[in-house]
User: Which sequence fits this backbone?
């Protein structure tokens, strides 16, 4: 009788990369619903465009590499990348910009480095950065949240704007678009206005921008689900939020007239999405626990620095990309003490 | 980090936790439904010569010899070695290479005995020692060595060596490993339930040998019957120096390093042994064997083996004579169930798959596990996404994903930087990997590559030394030769100068005399010419010559 032979261990958990990605997608659902609620159908159209181009790009490269495409596609990582990119894009962005972003993310940032597991940068964020520096005007033209939007577009109009660029009759870009709260805050701070004045604007909610704060809340909920399901560990998100809170809190204590309240930082822009879904991308983040704390805290600090003194209103993408570069080095210097390792006193 | 001690923990001993580990479904009840039975005696027993770590023993029998049960077949000559004994009476029919259970699938020297069915004991067995306390440690160690006892937890290191750490390493604690943390395996559990008293006696003997005052028995809390058995034995024979410590069930708590950490909070240093921190650790089955050897005078010729798994009809424990073929154990356990996938020696986490069941049981065989295809995961390895799940479960606190990365890249220096050699190959990392990467396999590969490289380096170092030595020797010989030659030449020249040839001297003296004579004649005005007493013909010739000279001159 002949037996199969494999090496130990002979039992495996049934976890798979696909399951991990499914959990991430599931955790994104509340945030996606909230985004759609506040910013309209454009969010879903963006997701559809981004995901289909991402998956198609992946198939294309895998075919070029003469490998079977199905196992690669079915790990759902391209879908996650597509969704994350779409969620960072303005709701009425022309479809071809979204498509360029998704294709760039998958072909250049992910597959050229060898596919899943080998990319040094977060594909969605690298693509976002490319789009932001290439089409800054398009990329910063957001819609106001639904409660402030006097002219909400229906689904057909949204499709029309995104795919043909044709505005509904009687409307122009200037009448329907609006700056993001972050943009508003820092542009006016640059014009030497005081926070008190800026806060008079109807854009503001309880903590951050109206609508935005709730979107962030729902992302936070999804993030807590991922923590609960042990898909991610707490180290990166908590250290990002803590470091951002501490730095913005210090700045606020020093001069509340020109530094926004810390909760503004946390609940505006892409902090929750970035902290729980983007910076935690294991491939491009640190893997040691100590390293993850340094990685997260540095992202939080970079977000605060770029927001306060940088040229771009939101900073999550740049902060994450900069720290992606530092991750291997941080990992190297934060190796945990191995079992039975005799402490080397010359180290300290 | 500690969890509160359990009720049986007499001194409320603080329990420690090791990093990582896994809660695995234990599948242990499967083989505990039936009481242990004696395996049937095979017609042929194939006894591998090497069943321990260390030097192979020297064969004392030859083909055709009649042997009795317990008779020594091969004698241990080296310190780190162990003898082997006949596990039943019969005739030696072959001493040759046979396939043995080893991950490599290679063959090794085995002694094959055709049993006579009488199972007759050797008459020359040593006397049982009833009062071990009157014996010296050396006498008892000698007995343990004679009995061929090796670590039965799987490491098969000769027990005598482990029990004799030397005067530089004072031992204060004996740790008894009854954790049996691998799923499916129940041989220690079964042994404890049926032989707690003997195991306890073995513990006392070993404590006497080591002269330690404290023994900690570590057992996982999923074995209530075994715990009760030890408690009962302890209560009947309480000496106050043995503590039964029930530890939480978490794989791999039965790893030597992990169990010691749970019980004492101490970590065995990276390149060290438990003896370095004053601890000796033995498996319960080893202590049972010690008791058999000392109190009964029996060598180690059989052991408890769990035959289990979904691919077996009647999973159970068996007391198996050394050298019995696995196939006959399977037969005794009701044969294979349908859809058999793998035949594994050991547990599902660290055992190795065998390609055939025509292999003998050795001292290291604690479990034969037969898995079914239905339960086999269909997985093709995907790329590592660096999720870090492996690092979370690693009991050695390693970074398995980094080790994998560098092992795959064959960066053997980096992989050692990340402490490859602290990996105990427990398999936790591969078990949780969502990409189903056979991580342990990569580590084994890297370890083997490093060993091979070190061996190559050692060889090339030797070769280089030899080459350099040869070059130096040739250069020295050449220099010596030249010096010799030069010396010879010098001597020759000196001799030439000093030595005078008598003939030459006579000639020189004659020439000198002639010159003196000539000078004297010249001074006297006489021209030296032999022109007197000439014949007329001669005179005419001279005159002619003078005339020609004058003519030519003018």
Assistant:
């Amino acid at each position: 009788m002949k037996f199969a032979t494999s090496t130990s261990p002979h039992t495996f958990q049934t976890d798979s990369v696909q399951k991990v990605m499914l959990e991430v997608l599931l955790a994104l659902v509340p945030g996606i619903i909230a985004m759609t609620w506040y910013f309209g159908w454009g969010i879903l159209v963006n997701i559809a465009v981004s995901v289909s181009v991402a998956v198609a790009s992946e198939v294309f490269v895998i075919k070029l590499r003469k490998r079977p495409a199905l196992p690669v596609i079915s790990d759902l990582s391209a879908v996650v990348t597509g969704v994350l990119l779409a969620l960072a894009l303005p709701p009425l962005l022309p479809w071809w910009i979204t498509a360029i972003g998704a294709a760039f993310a998958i072909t250049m940032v992910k597959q050229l480095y060898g596919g899943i597991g080998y990319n040094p940068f977060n594909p969605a964020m690298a693509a976002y950065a490319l789009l932001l520096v290439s089409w800054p005007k398009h990329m910063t033209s957001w819609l106001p949240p639904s409660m402030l939007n006097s002219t909400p577009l229906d689904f057909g109009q949204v499709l029309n704007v995104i795919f043909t660029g044709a505005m509904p009759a009687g409307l122009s870009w200037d009448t329907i678009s609006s700056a993001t709260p972050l943009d508003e805050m820092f542009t006016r701070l640059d014009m030497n206005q005081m926070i008190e004045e800026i806060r008079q604007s109807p854009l503001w909610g309880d903590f951050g921008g109206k609508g935005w704060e709730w979107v962030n809340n729902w992302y936070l909920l999804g993030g807590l689900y991922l923590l609960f399901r042990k898909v991610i560990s707490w180290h990166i998100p908590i250290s990002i939020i803590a470091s951002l809170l501490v730095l913005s809190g210090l700045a606020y204590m020093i001069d509340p007239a020109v530094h926004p309240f810390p909760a503004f930082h946390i609940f505006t822009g892409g902090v929750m999405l970035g902290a729980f879904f983007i910076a935690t991308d294991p491939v491009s983040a640190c893997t040691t626990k100590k390293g993850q704390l340094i990685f997260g805290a540095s992202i939080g600090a970079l977000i605060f620095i770029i927001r306060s003194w940088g040229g771009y209103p939101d900073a999550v993408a740049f902060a994450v990309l900069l720290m992606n570069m530092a991750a291997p080095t941080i990992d190297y210097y934060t190796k945990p003490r191995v079992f039975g390792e005799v402490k080397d006193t010359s180290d300290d | 980090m500690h969890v509160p001690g359990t009720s049986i923990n007499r001194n409320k001993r603080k329990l420690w936790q090791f990093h990582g580990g896994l809660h695995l479904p234990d599948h242990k009840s499967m083989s505990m439904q039936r009481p242990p039975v004696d395996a049937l005696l095979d017609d042929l027993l194939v006894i591998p010569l090497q069943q321990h770590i260390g030097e192979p023993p020297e064969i004392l029998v030859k083909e055709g010899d009649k042997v009795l049960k317990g008779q020594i077949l091969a004698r241990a000559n080296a310190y780190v070695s162990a003898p082997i004994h006949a596990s039943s009476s019969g005739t030696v029919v072959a001493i040759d290479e046979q396939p043995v259970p080893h991950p490599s699938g290679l063959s090794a020297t085995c002694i094959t005995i055709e049993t006579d069915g009488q199972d007759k004991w050797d008459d020359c067995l040593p006397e049982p020692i009833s009062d071990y306390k009157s014996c010296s440690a050396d006498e008892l160690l000698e007995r343990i060595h004679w009995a061929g006892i090796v670590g039965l937890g799987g490491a098969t290191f000769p027990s005598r060596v482990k029990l004799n750490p030397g005067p530089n390493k004072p031992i204060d604690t004996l740790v008894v490993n009854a954790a049996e943390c691998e799923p499916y395996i129940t041989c220690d559990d079964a042994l404890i339930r049926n032989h707690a008293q003997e195991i306890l006696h073995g513990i006392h003997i070993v404590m006497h040998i080591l002269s330690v005052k404290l023994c900690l028995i570590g057992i996982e809390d999923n074995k209530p019957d075994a715990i009760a058995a030890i408690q009962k034995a302890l209560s009947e024979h309480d000496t106050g120096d043995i503590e039964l410590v029930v530890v939480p069930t978490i794989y791999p708590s039965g790893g030597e390093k992990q169990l010691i950490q749970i019980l004492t909070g101490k970590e065995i240093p990276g390149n060290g042994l438990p003896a370095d921190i004053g601890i000796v650790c033995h498996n319960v089955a080893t202590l049972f064997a010690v008791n058999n050897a000392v109190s009964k005078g029996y060598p180690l010729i059989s052991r408890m083996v769990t035959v289990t798994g979904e691919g077996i009809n009647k999973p159970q424990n068996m007391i198996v004579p050394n050298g019995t073929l696995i196939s006959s154990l399977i037969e005794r356990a009701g044969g294979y169930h349908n859809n058999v996938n793998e035949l594994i020696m050991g547990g599902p986490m660290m055992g190795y798959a065998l390609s055939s069941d025509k292999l003998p049981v050795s001292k290291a065989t604690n479990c034969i596990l037969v898995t079914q295809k239905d339960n086999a995961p269909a997985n093709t390895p995907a790329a590592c996404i660096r999720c870090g799940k492996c690092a979370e479960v690693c009991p050695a606190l390693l970074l398995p994903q980094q080790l994998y990365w560098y092992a795959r890249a064959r960066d053997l220096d980096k992989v050692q930087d990340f402490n490859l050699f602290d990996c105990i190959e427990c398999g936790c990392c591969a078990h949780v990997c969502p990409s189903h990467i056979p991580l342990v396999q990569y580590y084994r590969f890297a370890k083997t590559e490093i060993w091979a490289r070190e061996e190559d380096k050692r060889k090339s170092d030797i070769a280089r030394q030899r080459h350099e030595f040869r070059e130096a020797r040739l250069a020295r010989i050449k220099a010596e030769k030249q010096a010799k030659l030069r010396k010879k030449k010098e001597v020759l020249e000196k001799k030439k100068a000093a030595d005078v040839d008598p003939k030459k001297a006579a000639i020189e003296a004659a020439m000198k005399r002639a010159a003196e004579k000539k000078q004297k004649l010249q001074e006297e005005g006489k021209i030296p010419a032999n022109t007197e007493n000439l014949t007329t013909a001669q005179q005419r010739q001279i005159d002619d010559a003078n005339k020609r000279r004058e003519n030519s001159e003018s």
